């Protein structure tokens, strides 16, 4: 609830008329294209803060266009929050005629701050940073540099989570703190001749590389404590002159992530791996026990990439896949240009059986997250499931989960029921193997 909505409740009861003035949670929002309301909005915020009786402020959330009047007022609003021992701050500004808001110096010395999110703000850092209580930091759409990033990280000794989204300028993230647990890089903007982002965090437990990150590459220097890693980024449309570079990039990341127990891979990385076969490239041995493959099981060449990964994950216990309604043509491989053979379901999996037999000795749980795929789109996944049923010695269950399907309200569950029927009638190696279907419609059976 915004502060404005909280104030409106005062008309419901005399006892509530002044309750909002002691509210420790402040939230102000001005929609885009509201320049005519800007002055009244500023007057409203000033009035609310001047009547605030709370000794301590817990949360200050602000979302508005970056108008000149807003920029000149936001400094004093943030100062008010900081003087009241604010713990959580979120400032999200929308671009207005290419103007940006420069975060005030006082914010970088807020010792009570526990969580900070800034979006489309100028993150200029000079001098020391004193965020001795900060645990969560999110920076969106900002120009940064290595020196400023180093000051922020060294001034945040208990930081646990860092997310950089659509940021540019940073070339090296180095964190020595034992508190640092999770790093997310989303849609990183590479720039300059040396287009590389190096990451060194010896105590990091979870790493996520996400979004559109064209024009550069990631390098992992020291990530020996990682338990979970997600490679769900994309660089660009595949082209013949960059096939090897893309494959080398993904392989290099997997080399540095060989010790993680949970590995998540997205569509682009899977397709990059599917091109490795033509160049006699092999993946490192992975200690992954839970493998999650997102959104591309039906893409051409991807089953071969899945086979490569299964060949390398000899301790795999759980496999999770995500189906898609239709392939993503924007990043689909040009299979003819790289000499791929036509994928032929069960024949393919039987052909690679000798390569992945060690994985089949430990696999116990397979989960399919269905996004509303048609029976035709199910074919590549179905051939894999039939193969696993027939060859995985310790397989306990195959779960097909369609409870969060976007199209579940528009289509009958018949494709899923047909998939379940095919699997139930298929020979299985493990006598305890079960097929479980989860579907949101009431009355739809679970098999």
UniProtKB/TrEMBL annotation:
Note the Gene3D superfamilies from the entry. Ribonuclease Inhibitor
Task: Give a single Pfam family match.
Answer: LRR_At1g61320_AtMIF1
Domain named At1g61320/AtMIF1 LRR: residues: 57-232
**What top-level branch of life does the organism fall under?**
Eukaryota
* InterPro entries associated with the record: FBL13/AtMIF1-like, LRR_At1g61320_AtMIF1, LRR_dom_sf
Provide the protein name: At1g61320/AtMIF1 LRR domain-containing protein
State the species of origin. Answer: Eucalyptus grandis (Flooded gum)
């Amino acid at each position: 609830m915004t502060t404005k909505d909280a104030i409106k409740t005062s008309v419901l009861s005399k006892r509530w008329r002044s309750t909002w003035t002691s509210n420790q949670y402040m939230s102000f929002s001005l929609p885009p294209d509201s320049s005519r309301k800007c002055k009244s909005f500023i007057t409203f915020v000033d009035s609310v803060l001047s009547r605030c009786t709370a000794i301590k402020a817990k949360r200050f959330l602000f979302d508005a266009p970056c108008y000149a009047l807003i920029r000149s007022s936001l400094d004093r609003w943030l100062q008010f929050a900081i003087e009241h021992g604010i713990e959580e701050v979120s400032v999200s500004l929308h671009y207005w005629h290419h103007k940006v808001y420069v975060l005030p110096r006082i914010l970088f010395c807020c010792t009570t701050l526990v969580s900070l999110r800034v979006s489309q703000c100028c993150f200029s850092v000079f001098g020391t940073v004193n965020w001795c209580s900060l645990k969560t930091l999110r920076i969106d759409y900002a120009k940064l540099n290595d020196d400023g990033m180093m000051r922020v990280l060294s001034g945040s000794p208990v930081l646990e989570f860092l997310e950089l989204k659509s940021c540019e300028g940073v070339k090296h993230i180095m964190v020595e703190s034992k508190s640092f647990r999770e790093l997310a890089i989303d849609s990183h903007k590479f720039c300059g001749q040396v287009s590389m982002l190096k990451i060194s965090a010896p105590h990091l437990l979870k790493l996520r590389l996400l979004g559109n990150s064209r024009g550069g590459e990631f390098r992992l220097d020291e990530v020996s404590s990682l338990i979970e890693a997600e490679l769900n980024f994309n660089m660009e449309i595949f082209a013949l002159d960059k096939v090897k570079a893309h494959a080398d990039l993904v392989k290099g990341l997997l080399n540095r992530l060989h010790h993680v127990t949970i590995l998540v891979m997205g569509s682009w990385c899977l397709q990059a791996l599917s091109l490795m076969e033509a160049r006699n490239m092999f993946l490192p041995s992975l200690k992954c026990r839970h493998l999650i493959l997102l959104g591309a099981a039906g893409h051409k060449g991807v089953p071969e990439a899945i086979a490569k990964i299964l060949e390398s994950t000899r301790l795999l216990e759980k496999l999770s896949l995500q189906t898609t309604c239709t392939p993503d043509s924007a990043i689909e491989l040009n299979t003819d240009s790289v000499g791929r053979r036509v994928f032929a379901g069960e024949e393919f999996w039987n052909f690679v059986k000798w390569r992945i037999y060690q994985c089949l000795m430990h696999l116990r749980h397979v989960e399919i997250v269905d996004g509303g795929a048609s029976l035709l789109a199910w074919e590549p996944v179905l051939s894999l499931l039939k193969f696993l049923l027939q060859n995985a010695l310790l397989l306990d269950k195959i779960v097909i989960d369609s409870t969060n399907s976007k199209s579940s309200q528009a289509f009958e569950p018949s494709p899923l029921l047909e998939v379940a029927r095919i699997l139930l009638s298929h020979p299985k190696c493990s006598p305890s193997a079960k097929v479980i279907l989860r579907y949101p419609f009431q009355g739809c059976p679970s098999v």
